[in-house]
Amino acid sequence: MTDSTPKRAVVLASGGMDSATAAYVADEEGYDCYLLHTSYGQETEGKEYDCARRLADEVDAADFLHVETGHLAAVGGSSLTDDEMDVADADLESEEVPTSYVPFRNANLLSMAVSYAETNDCGAVFIGAHSEDFSGYPDCRPAFFDAFQQVVDTGTRDDTDIDLRAPFVEWSKTDIAERGTELGVPYEHTWSCYRAEAPACGTCDACAFRLQAFQNLGVRDPIEYEQRPEYAE
């Protein structure tokens, strides 16, 4: 890219609060945002798509790409995509890899994002992974993103320069919610629940971490829940 070319970035937009906050960070940094949303057979894919599409409008995205992939569901191995596996209730103290882990999902998503970025002369790819993810999801670890940056540098054209950005990788969910609140992220149009499209269950891991973040801040989460347990630290 030349100096006169606008800054462009692909943002992996799941429909959740972390990726929405990442999009607002990219926008604040002056990037024209190209949002990539993937449906891969997850239980709440319709709701997640609606939220990602709304986010594209909120940040005035330069482009919105929706890709449907069936291979992660076909491979299985996750309660998010396999009807034979139940989504477990939240256990915020567990250090085990949860059943909601989709094997090597982030590598799959980032590969598509890098293809999208290289095609559109984007200088960065943003992903909203954070520290509470990598306590359970191996493909959210800082070392994974460092290694994937090497893959990007090695596997793209010599004149391509794409910076893999995981701005929250050392942050807690509470940190993200605090930053997003400062940026005015419309969290009422994001979705985290693994089980249901409306209302959110309030008891799966994703709901628990989200509710805990807002409760830690003393701010009411604006989406509807079937249950609102107290998770504040």
From TrEMBL:
Q: How is the cofactor bound?
A: Binds 1 zinc ion per subunit.
Q: Which GO terms describe its molecular function?
A: ATP binding; ligase activity, forming carbon-nitrogen bonds; zinc ion binding
Instruction: State where Zn(2+) binds.
Output: 193, 201, 204, 207
Q: Which pathway is this protein engaged in?
A: Purine metabolism; 7-cyano-7-deazaguanine biosynthesis
What Pfam families does the record tag this protein with?
QueC
EC assignment: the record states 6.3.4.20
SUPFAM superfamilies (UniProt xref):
Adenine nucleotide alpha hydrolases-like
Residues involved in ATP binding: 13-23
Q: So what does this thing catalyse? A: 7-carboxy-7-carbaguanine + NH4(+) + 2 ATP = 7-cyano-7-carbaguanine + 2 AMP + 2 diphosphate + 2 H(+)
UniProt-listed CDD domains: QueC-like
Name the coenzymes or cofactors required.
Answer: Zn(2+)
Question: What keywords appear on the UniProt entry?
Answer: ATP-binding, Ligase, Metal-binding, Nucleotide-binding, Zinc
On the tree of life, the source organism's domain of life is Archaea
Family that this chain belongs to: Belongs to the QueC family.
| Function text | Catalyzes the ATP-dependent conversion of 7-carboxy-7-deazaguanine (CDG) to 7-cyano-7-deazaguanine (preQ(0)).
- Extract the NCBIfam families matched here: 7-cyano-7-deazaguanine synthase QueC (TIGR00364)
Protein name according to UniProt: 7-cyano-7-deazaguanine synthase
Gene that produces this protein: queC
